[in-house]
Amino acid sequence: MSDREEIQNTIQTYFDCMYESDGGKAHDAFHPAAKITGYTQEGLQQMSVDDFAKFVASKSPSHKENGDPVLLETLSLDIAGETAVARVRDAYIGLTFLDTLSFLKVDNRWVIYNKLFHVES
What string of DSSP letters covers 55-105? Predict the structure, then answer.
């Protein structure tokens, strides 16, 4: 599998963690030291992977159980050696997000090291 395909698989795991309310998949997609940071109407939000995993797991029933429509678009993906950056648009908790995901290849596996998010709507 190419690096591009492996990164796309990690992006899918990231989205699935939210869509399925599966905190375990958050740990699969993110590096343990990753940060999830961005702005909501309440201001600057900063989370660790553990915080994010607990947040997505708390959403019950899940978007999948509700049959909510899926919105996941990879807008760009740039790979430089064992680092990469992707811009992703996704729908979650009734909002549309534009995420900038930074990746590292660690132990031959692509993981998200940083997520910056912007609420589009």
Answer: HHHT-SS-HHHHTPPP-EEEEEEEEETTEEEEEEEEEETTEEEEEEEEEEE
